[in-house]
Amino acid sequence: MARAYYCLVAGFPDFALDEAKLPLTTDVLRADLAEQLAPEDRQYLSMLFWPVDNRNLLAVLAGSPDHDARGNYSREFLEDEVRTPSSLPGYMREFVDQYRAGLASGAHPENVLADLMYRELAGCSNAFVRGWFEFDRDLRNIVAALGCRRTGAEPEREIVGEGLVAEAVRRTSGSDFGLSRELVWLESLLRGWGQSLLERELAVDRVRLDVMDELTVSSGFSIDKVLAFVLRLGIAERWLALDAATGREMLRRILSDMESGLVFPEEFSIRGGSKHGDNR
Fold first, then answer.
1. How far apart are CA 199 and CA 4, in angstroms?
2. pLDDT tens digit sequence for 152-167
3. pLDDT digit string, tens, across residues 132-142
């Protein structure tokens, strides 16, 4: 039976906005969650940051000093693993082997690694993680194809993986790639796809928030709500750094969405706690 995090999830919307400053950061939240989540749920949380680990791994392989501390692994750990892969997720170990053997001519290492990651996550036992990264792959491919249209580049080398969306953006010239019926969020993305980079980034993140709402509409107080809030908080952090007014708008929406989605089961009493315990 899935664990319910009543007090944890109920507390997410319960903090005030203070101009352009977040009262909670992703780093602080992750440290707190490391102590509160069940072991299997901590693994799902770590998967959300695999894209950061991918960039850090590629930096090590390329000899770049860049390292994003939001990843799961330190630079030193990745350097050791590159020499003797043993503890990295399976898809990363497979990529290191492929990288050493030599990638196909013209292949972008970041796309090869991303494809391996998406394939591994497709087998994740958590439905939110599977759904989120399937959407993330499709969104990434749509955005890449839209970028190719702006520059006149061929999309083939920029598209990750296979499947309906990947094939459509490779082959279809229509304004919506013929995918509006399959992707309910595509119309919203295209409608907000403005001329400036900021407008396009905002359109992408609004779609991300919409999809998170859809993926957690029936999640109650499960780990899915926790994972979605971590992602939402990361979006708000990024926008507060890029544009304070937009960041505050994003955070207000996030907190409002969280609060409106909290429906306690009958056996749970806010005053007295759950007969099963606060975080069962």
1. 37
2. 888 888 899 988 999 9
3. 999 999 999 99
Cβ–Cβ < 8 Å for 148, 123:
no
Quickly count: other Cβ atoms within 10 Å of residue 90's Cβ: 11
Give the domain range for residue 250.
Answer: 1-36+221-280
Residue 212 burial class via C-beta count within 10 angstroms: exposed 0-12, middle 13-18, buried 19 and up: buried
| Residues 71, 17 share a domain | no
**Four-residue CA torsion sign, 246, 250, 252, 253:** positive
Sign of the CA dihedral running 156, 158, 161, 163: negative
The one-letter code for the residue type at 157 is R
Evaluate whether residue 15 is within a structural domain: yes
pTM: 0.87
Residue 64: inside a domain, yes or no?
yes
Domain membership of residue 250 (yes or no) is yes
Domain boundary among 69, 102, 121: 121
Amino acid at 179: L
* E strands in 164-272: 268-269
